[in-house]
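Fill-in record for Homoserine dehydrogenase.
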Amino acid sequence: MINVGIIGFGTVGTGTASILLNNRDILRERTGIDINLRRIADLDIKRDRGIKLPKGILTAKTEELLDDPDIHIVVELIGGTTVAKDVILKAISKGKHVVTANKALLATHGAEIFRAAGKQKVELGFEASVAGGIPIVKVIREGLVANRIRAVYGIINGTTNYILTKMTEEKAEFSEVLKEAQKLGYAEADPTYDIEGIDSAHKLAILASLSYGPRFSIKDVYREGISWISPMDIEFARELGYKLKLLAIAKESDGKVELRVHPTMVPEEYLISKVDGVYNAVYVEGDAVGSTLYYGRGAGDMPTGSAVVSDIADIARNIVTNSVGRISLDPSRKGKSLMKMDDVQSMYYFRFSAIDKPGVLSKISGILGKYNISIVSVIQKGRHEGKAVPLVVLTHRAKEKNVLAALKEINRLSIVAGKSVFIRVEGKEGDR
């Protein structure tokens, strides 16, 4: 028998406990191991979570769980980067294997935690830290182990995907859709981590570390949110044949890795552009396998609990077969270096608020040409001579630092009213 202790009995903790209790027979049949939920620690042990627990399983004292010599696997579901870190390191120091869903902790202190686990020769499972029920960690660690990973693109935050989907379908303003998402429970009362791309950046740091070697952290990820996106830009994207998504992108180029989270225009015929609502999807390109796509629910008690229990089952097998450490996650091994955002190359969408008069486009295109930015297409809506109108430009691939320099110069022109908008565009140039 392999005994499990859960620390943190919130949404994911409840889902995990429910699966371990209700599917114990299925787990035994499929693994040949009896996986027993022995203890749950939480500060609140009186609130009804809607599931029936064995008598005496709950405790308000984390130490009772950590000090129990019969518990083999500790599941950390507290969240945050302080108490959770202490709990995990204490569990590791006592020789216990650990499963966590804590993306913020791993993206901030992952190297320290992985070193501790390696030193103690214990397992660290973290499937639930990225994309909920989608087994993307296992895919990269095991399924694509024979591949050099060329790129990882992800819609890995359901809140922002829901908001952008609703803005696209209903041509609604960001603030209106955010309120609706909060009312439905898809967005937190304080939605900052979601709408500013922080949650996605945490997850991308983990995926990049799996794919490219060193322990990338949240500090390595360039990040933009979606709060500034307008229905106007979504509509122009549609006219150009694109949809707008908050993408997390890790891509190897010239021996370096670019890591970025930002609103991105994706060709509407791409499968990932068809992922709507609260769903997640992760595209992975390997040198041997080519392009692959993984789709499913990225959050929730049961999808995330499913990922937690998957790690528990894997670790239980490794304990029983004496194969702990069969997959190396050494944070000190040599990996790819980080590319500066200035050196990233992409296609770009620009929207200028330009005065409607002769010669405006030639002035703007002249500055773009000066910085080696060539134009694919142009859209101008309406004619209001002498007044500002939207002027939309789609470019070929260009370097980020050249784009920023060109926009700085264009924004100083008297023929441009207000700050110009730019959105990065992914996809092969020949696709449009």
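KEY FINDING: The chain has 14 helices and 18 strands.
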